[in-house]
Amino acid sequence: MSPQQFRAQDKLALLLALVPYLLDQRRVSVADAAAHFAVEPDLIREAVSLIAVSGVPGETKQYQHGDLFDIDWDAYLDRDTIVVTHQVAIDDTPRFSAREAAALIAGLQYLAALPEHDNREAIATLMAKLTRGASAAPSQLAVAETASAAEASAEEIGTLRAAISGETQVEFEYLNARGQRESRVVDPLRIESIDQDWYLRGWCHLRHAVRTFRLDRITGLRGTERPITRHGDDVVVPSTLFDVSADDLRVQLELPSAALPLLADYVTPGARTTRTDDKVRLTIRVPHYHGLKRLVSGLPGLITVLGPPEARQIVADWAAAGAAQYAESDA
């Protein structure tokens, strides 16, 4: 864009974006800055001239030498290179604390470990900016790749994505919720990540219905050249992750009212709840008691299993077995 096409608000937007860009780059040529913002070099030079006379007046309400931005004029005039040597007010803006920056960096490390995030360079650049911009050095944290992310390898996700985009079927061996291994042929519709687990949603030719498959229970995944027979427009993919089945087991639970949204995927529409003080009682449906154990372990200290007696006994035995392992370890 030429200087003649630039309006006043465009110049202000360029100036506001140019200052942090120069500070982040530390040393950049006029040509590179112009290419970055897709403008003519003369617009960059005009903005630099304005930066050099910008600042915040001191206590005297007058501009002194230290109250203005400054650049390396020798580098600018002789080599057409911009280097900001003095900045004003930028350091007075609120910064992330060391703990806040460490938490954000840990989250970025987790994202970098997921197979779907292949732009590691962008994530590394953002982590470096957070480290430099924090009020103090962030704590050194390392986030290991989760087992589910490791098992849901980039190759498996790539195979599924290729099948979804190419509208072709996939085949695999699946360990179902009851511990039975079955061969499945599926028309893949979508893949999604919930918490630490990856799931495939698709039309299962064995069950003749839409089913959800956990990727860490899939083995021998292979793509085919057969076209799918069910498309996203042909079937209804439930908005909830877990489908209701006539074979599901009913379990009565008690938990704090504030924790009820955490069970949204397990609560069927129209299910009755009974509230007492800050507690709520309700009945949920689970495919098997192993899934109930996983649910209880995911919300430690929040869920009390009220019935049926078989469910209470299974969860109690499972918790006792876990506690016994800690006792053995201490011994």
Automatic annotation (TrEMBL):
Record-annotated PafC HTH domain positions: 10-132
Domain called WCX: residue spans: 250-321
One Pfam family cited in the UniProt record for this chain: WCX
Keyword DNA-binding among UniProt keywords: yes
Database matches in InterPro entries: CBASS_pafABC_assoc_protein, PafC-like, PafC_HTH, WCX_dom, WYL_dom
Residue stretches making up the WYL domain: 158-221
Keywords: DNA-binding
GO molecular function: DNA binding
Record-given protein name: DNA-binding transcriptional regulator
